[in-house]
Design a protein that fits this description.
It is built from two helices and no strands. It has helices spanning about 15-70, 75-85. The chain is rod-shaped.
């Protein structure tokens, strides 16, 4: 009499579906987290840019006031204006 031995090789369809579902859930959570980090980084970048522009505006207005009073020269104001226009 022959002995029939069924060896289990590979994975069943149910096991593969479960693994794919777990991977999909993890990928979804990761995409949401990355989106949050990107939005936070954009917000911080916007705040930094606004602060930089405010500082440049203050420098330019101070230079203009100094020039109106007859102090200083206008080369600094031109340099700041040029650097501001090239960085935008």
């Amino acid at each position: 009499m022959k002995r029939i031995c069924k060896s289990k090789i590979g994975f069943s369809l149910l096991e593969i579906i479960i693994v794919v579902a777990i991977i999909a859930i993890l990928a979804g959570v990761m995409v949401m987290s990355i989106g949050t980090y990107i939005n936070n980084a954009k917000a911080k970048s916007d705040v930094a840019e606004q602060s930089r522009r405010s500082a440049v505006t203050n420098i330019l207005s101070s230079e203009a006031r100094m020039n109106e009073l007859g102090f200083g020269n206008s080369t600094n104001a031109r340099y700041v204006t040029q650097s501001m226009s090239t960085s935008v």
